[in-house]
Specification:
The chain has 125 residues and is mostly beta strands. The chain has one helix at 11-22, and strands spanning 2-6, 26-33, 37-52, 61-67, 70-76, 79-86, 92-99, 104-109.
Length: 125
């Protein structure tokens, strides 16, 4: 595995690319914090969007997941760093966002694969 940091000035573009590649992929989300420990927030729901704030530039990152009848949005305030963890063959395995308060939010794929090896992702229901 290797980890790549996304430079702050590339957050919007790179997260848009990440979303377009992985929309519909099943993800889980955990929040790790010095005061709250490990908290499981999302379990195997299709990814809809990972977006960086474009207007206020307040460093908010939004993660939206769901399918018909089940939609969740997780907001990450005061993001300071964003990393993509990749497998040895270059497939995205996880996205990690660090916040100013020391909290880490980790979005993981249920299955890691290179996008070109995936024929069809089931549409959200």
């Amino acid at each position: 595995m290797r980890t790549v940091e996304i430079p702050r000035e590339a957050w919007v573009q790179r997260l848009n690319e990440f979303t377009s590649i992985h929309v519909g992929w099943l993800v889980s989300l955990d929040v790790l914090g010095p005061d709250l420990g490990a908290q499981h927030q999302i379990d195997n729901l299709p990814l809809l969007c990972v977006c960086a704030d474009r207007t206020d530039h307040d460093r908010t990152i939004e993660v939206s997941v769901g399918r018909s009848g089940e939609h969740l949005t997780h907001m990450i305030a005061a993001a300071t760093r964003i990393y993509i963890e990749m497998t040895d063959d270059g497939a995205d395995a996880a996205l990690q966002v660090e916040s100013a308060d020391g909290t880490k939010t980790i979005l993981r794929f249920r299955v890691t694969a290179l996008p070109e090896t995936v024929d069809v992702i089931a549409a959200p229901r």
